[in-house]
């Protein structure tokens, strides 16, 4: 007696999914039942390696994955085998001449990094934004979205006018989690981009980064200065490639905190004193002098070419008068 071996792992043939093969084209088809109850037929397509980036795209609000977090380091688990095989196709919908990836943005990013083709199940059916979002949520089996990625999705709802209570009710989340997620999403992207594997960032990490940002902002320090100051140090840590992902994250956090502490201790830079040389009715026109320590400069905007030429001549005459004999 022959015993059928039980299938191990995920398949696309289980309810509510049904698969069929078109006898004429021999192309794989997949039927998905949408949240509205209507069905959409998806056909398997292979996008060539040199067209993946241009012919496919991702809308973060629908897909849910923070695309800026898809760094080569965070995709090592996929890129290690992607050139050999793609285990599961991405899921997409045809939008004009391009394909929106609903599920599989990590696979899409891996295909671009590996310069490999991307297999996508694509539908031509008209799908609403809500149906697309719900379908993406239903079929996603990749890494769970971190608290910041959830916050980035919720931030769009908040900006559309929904209250935090409405967001919590709509998404089936507690109001406390909505608050934490929105706080995590408020961390400037420049900080988050310092981390090669951004999924490692916990809520506590995001809260710490928010505190750093608030501290230096109160002192009148531009957060981009902090990021630029530590860029090389962070890059060296990443390139050493000897630390586990969580230890690397902790090291980078320490570097950020240390730099913030140093910047706060530094004396405030002297501000320039501005003197207006002429008042204009037009707010975009000005003639002013700036003094900062021993340095000064004159600034003019929207003055006639004739007046510019006369100013040039006057400055040249005065410089010649006072400096020629001293040389």
Name some characteristics of this structure.
4 domains; 327 residues; disordered N terminus; alpha+beta; 10 strands; 45% helix; Conserved hypothetical protein from pyrococcus furiosus pfu- 392566-001, ParB domain
Q: Can you put this structure into words, describing what you see?
A:
- The chain has 327 residues and is of the alpha+beta class.
- It folds into 4 domains: 18-143, Conserved hypothetical protein from pyrococcus furiosus pfu- 392566-001, ParB domain, CATH 3.90.1530; 146-186; 189-265, no CATH class; 273-322, no CATH class.
- The protein is 45% helix and 18% strand.
- The chain is built from 13 helices and 10 strands.
- It has helices at residues 52-55, 60-63, 76-82, 105-114, 129-139, 147-159, 164-171, 175-185, 189-192, 203-218, 223-240, 245-265, 305-323, and strands at residues 18-21, 28-33, 39-47, 56-57, 90-95, 98-103, 118-123, 273-278, 286-292, 295-301.
- The strands form 2 sheets. A 7-stranded mixed β-sheet has the order 1-2-3-7-5-6-4. A 3-stranded antiparallel β-sheet has the order 8-9-10, with no helix packed on it.
- Strand 9 and strand 10 (295-301) form a beta hairpin.
- The protein is elongated.
- The N and C termini lie far apart (108 Å).
Nutshell version of this structure?
This protein has helices spanning about 50-55, 60-65, 75-80, 105-115, 130-140, 145-160, 165-170, 175-185, 190, 205-220, 225-240, 245-265, 305-325; strands spanning about 20, 30-35, 40-45, 55, 90-95, 100-105, 120-125, 275-280, 285-290, 295-300.
């Amino acid at each position: 007696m022959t015993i059928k071996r039980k299938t191990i792992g995920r398949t696309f043939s289980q309810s509510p999914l049904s698969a069929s093969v078109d006898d004429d084209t021999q192309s794989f088809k997949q039927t998905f039942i949408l949240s509205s109850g209507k069905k959409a037929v998806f056909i398997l397509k292979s996008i060539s390696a040199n067209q993946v980036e241009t012919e496919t795209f991702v809308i973060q609000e629908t897909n849910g994955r923070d695309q800026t977090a898809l760094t080569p380091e965070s995709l090592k688990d996929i890129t290690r085998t992607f050139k050999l095989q793609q285990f599961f196709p991405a899921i997409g919908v045809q939008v004009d001449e391009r394909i929106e990836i609903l599920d599989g943005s990590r696979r899409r990013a891996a295909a671009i990094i590996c310069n490999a083709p991307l297999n996508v199940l694509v539908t031509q059916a008209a799908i609403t934004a809500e149906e697309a979002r719900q379908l993406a949520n239903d079929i996603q089996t990749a890494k769970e979205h971190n608290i910041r990625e959830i916050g980035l999705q919720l931030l769009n709802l908040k900006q559309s006018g929904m209250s935090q209570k409405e967001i919590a009710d709509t998404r089936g989340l507690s109001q406390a989690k909505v608050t934490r997620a929105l706080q995590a999403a408020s961390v400037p992207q420049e900080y988050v981009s310092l981390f090669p594997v951004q999924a490692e960032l916990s809520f506590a990490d995001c809260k710490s980064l928010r505190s750093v940002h608030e501290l230096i902002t109160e002192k009148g320090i531009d957060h981009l200065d902090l990021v630029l100051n530590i860029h090389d140090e962070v890059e060296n840590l990443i390139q050493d490639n000897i630390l586990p992902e969580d230890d690397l994250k902790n090291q980078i956090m320490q570097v950020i905190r240390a730099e913030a502490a140093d910047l706060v201790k530094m004396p405030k830079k002297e501000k320039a004193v501005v003197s207006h040389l002429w008042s204009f009715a037009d707010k975009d026109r000005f003639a002013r002098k700036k003094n900062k320590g021993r340095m000064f400069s004159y600034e003019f905007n929207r003055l006639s070419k004739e007046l510019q030429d006369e100013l040039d001549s006057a400055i040249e005459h005065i410089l010649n008068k006072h400096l020629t004999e001293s040389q």
